[in-house]
């Protein structure tokens, strides 16, 4: 998982923060949510 990546690169300490954004004023399908998460994960790799 993404938390393990820095350890695999040799770091000995990692801090992982998880933010949950729960929106209930719009109806969205699970596929839309998964696509959004995958997009964010791909973009977060650019910052490593």
Describe what is shown at a glance.
The chain has 48 residues and is mainly alpha-helical.
Overall average pLDDT: 87
Q: How many helical elements? A: 2
Number of E-type strands: 0
Helix/strand class: mainly alpha
Helix content: 25-40%
Order of helices and strands: HH
Radius of gyration: 14 Å
State the end-to-end CA separation. 14 Å
Largest sheet: none
Task: State which percent range the strand residues make up.
Answer: under 5%
Shape: elongated
Biased composition (Basic and acidic residues): 39-48
Domain Thiamine-binding protein: 2-38
Region (Disordered): 26-48
Task: Report what the structure shows.
It is elongated, with a radius of gyration of 14 Å. It is built from two helices and no strands. The model has no long low-confidence stretch (mean pLDDT 87). The chain starts with a helix and ends with a helix. With 48 residues, the chain is mainly α. The chain has helices at residues 5-8, 30-44.
């Amino acid at each position: 998982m993404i938390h393990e990546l820095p350890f695999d690169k040799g770091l000995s300490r990692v801090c992982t923060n998880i933010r949950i954004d729960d929106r209930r004023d719009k109806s969205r399908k699970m596929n839309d949510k998964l696509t959004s998460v995958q997009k964010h994960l791909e973009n977060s790799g650019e910052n490593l």
